[in-house]
Design goal:
6 strands, 2 domains, about 450 residues, 2-methylcitrate dehydratase PrpD, 60s Ribosomal Protein L30, Chain: A, alpha+beta
Length: about 450
């Protein structure tokens, strides 16, 4: 069988999920909702609502705040919103944010179909397991130019939608085959200030829904889209080992090893932030005591998160110097870090000028399986200390607890929904596996 057929058969045959896997799937949905809500009330999601007005106010799916939409438009807008403020989940080895595209597609189709909560969670698991394996196989060679959340995310969305539409194995494989030729998203989209990056997640979610809808209607795709001579693996990577990619399907569930973000910015900056804060605490110093900071990290941290003089929230989220300076001055990097007064804060700008970011060959060699940073701080009184941050808070080795995840959800949801509604929604999401029908 081709890889798309193997993935499809896995999903169709997916056995009843263990309590552990169900729990981790609920964590993923809660984290997605936490990212969705603040992103739904800012650009580009709000601009998409204007652009797609003909697709709104009818249909069985819903946008984040309840507006009716078709399944495809809900997937597009909600997927975009969930990736906008940079707090959505990560599967580290695939260099990929699965939640924004996969759960946006799953939620839209579940609403459209009136699926149960357990069916939704099963679809999310299928989407995560299939897409993360494709992402791992495509590797660093793919990430050189492509944004995995747009490309790989298309497969997660298609798998989730195909599961909820209850496609048979043949239809399911054709949904994956068709979405493979939809897969897109260039890193250049966020190498300068633009609103395009979150659209990658939304477009992937929409593409997945469309591919599944097409397969349900009888549209066929090239089943060897992954391993073919002109397929995804050759065109957008270096000829991955697809046999290895499918080897652990059904026995090793990637969704149990997700990274949930602890900072509201690019994940490539997290080890630097965590390391700087840890070293600052151990040295017992204030930001004004710091003469110089040196951050050594892996190549992607410099290439993707290397903005020297950020002028917008989008650029600041991808500026290691800005977020490290913010953390050292204010103790954390939350959404407030990207408000206008913080972007223009002279204390942050002054400290940024004393921070250097370079590529550490030793740490680069361990990427993407390890995301580390080596931080050195020198003080005005002549002290200098170094600290190796081997991982990030939120990674599988140092995971956010359920209580941490609750706090993150309430912090992000409350400004949008209010405290009472946020707490009620969180409680309902923890009981998602008992929901009789997703119509909300």
């Amino acid at each position: 069988m081709t890889s798309t057929q193997t993935f499809a058969q896995f999903a169709v045959d997916l056995k009843p999920l263990t309590p552990q896997v169900i729990h981790h799937a609920k964590r993923a949905v809660i984290d997605w909702y936490a990212a969705l809500l603040p992103g739904a009330v800012v650009a580009p999601a709000m601009l998409l609502e204007q652009a797609l007005v003909e697709d709104l106010d009818h249909g069985s799916a819903r946008l984040a705040l309840g507006r009716a939409a078709t399944a495809r438009s809900a997937a597009l807008i909600n997927g975009t919103a969930a990736h906008t403020v940079e707090v959505d989940d990560i599967y580290r080895d695939a260099i990929y944010h699965p939640g924004a595209p996969t759960i946006a597609a799953a939620w839209a189709v579940a609403q459209d179909q009136g699926s149960t909560g357990l069916e939704l969670l099963r679809a999310v698991v299928a989407g995560y397991e299939i897409s993360t394996r494709i992402g791992v196989a495509m590797g660093r060679a793919h990430y050189k130019y492509w944004h995995n959340t747009g490309t790989i995310g298309s497969f997660g969305a298609a798998a989730a939608a195909a599961s909820l539409y209850r496609l048979d194995a043949s239809q399911y494989a054709h949904a994956l085959a068709t979405v493979g030729t939809f897969a897109a998203g260039l890193q250049q989209a966020f190498r300068m200030d633009s609103l395009s990056k979150p659209l990658h997640a939304g477009r992937a979610a929409e593409a997945g829904v469309l591919a599944a809808q097409g397969a349900r209607a009888g549209i066929t795709g090239s089943l060897d889209i992954l391993e073919g001579e002109a397929g995804l693996g050759q065109a957008m990577s270096n000829g991955p080992d697809w046999g290895k990619a499918v080897a652990t399907l059904g026995s090793d569930f990637h969704i149990t090893r997700m990274t949930f973000k602890n900072h509201a910015c690019c994940g490539h900056t997290f080890a630097a932030i965590d390391g700087a804060l840890a070293l600052q605490a151990s040295m017992a110093i204030d930001a004004q005591d710091i003469r110089r900071v040196h951050v050594g990290s892996y190549r992607a941290a410099k290439e993707v998160a290397g903005y020297e003089n950020p002028q917008s929230p989008a650029e600041a989220r991808f500026s290691t110097k800005f977020v490290v300076a913010t953390a050292l001055l204010y103790g954390s990097v939350r959404l407030s870090a990207f408000e206008p007064d913080r972007l223009a804060d002279p204390k942050i700008r002054a400290l940024m000028a004393r921070i250097e970011l370079t590529i550490d060959p030793e740490l680069d060699a361990t990427f993407p399986g390890q995301r580390a940073a080596r931080v050195t701080i020198a003080t005005h009184d002549g002290r200098s200390e170094q600290y190796l941050q081997p991982t990030r808070k939120g990674d599988p080795e140092q995971p956010l607890s359920d209580a941490d995840l609750d706090d993150k959800f309430l912090e992000l949801a409350t400004p949008v929904l209010g405290a009472d509604q946020s707490k009620a929604l969180l409680s309902r999401l923890w009981r998602l596996d008992s929901e009789a029908g997703i119509r909300w």
